[in-house]
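tool_call: predict_structure(chain=1)
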Amino acid sequence: MKLIIAIIQPHKLEAVKRELEAVEVNLMTVTNVLGQGRQKGITEIYRGAKEIGNLLNKVRLDIAVNESFVEPAITAINKGARTGNLGDGKIFIIDLHECIRISSGERGGTAIG
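tool_result:
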């Protein structure tokens, strides 16, 4: 089992969700977050000088999947989120040691979905 954490641009959320649904990955948690990457926040020119402003709005997706869904989910996120520009986001893959469905007590891969 793996936990996929994707940080994407907010306006790409619907496209990413469509791509994930197409590969039968339907369960996710979505959180609005702030951050900066290589683009270092908002860059503006003020009176001829380059100024770096606040953190950027991003969306974080947390998706728990069984091993067979890892690569399809990664491909779907890339397809839905990529513009080819800095700031498209990142995908992190973390080993998920245990998953427990609270309502039934199921554990492991069956508890994921």
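agent: The chain has one domain: 2-40+51-112. Proceeding to next step.
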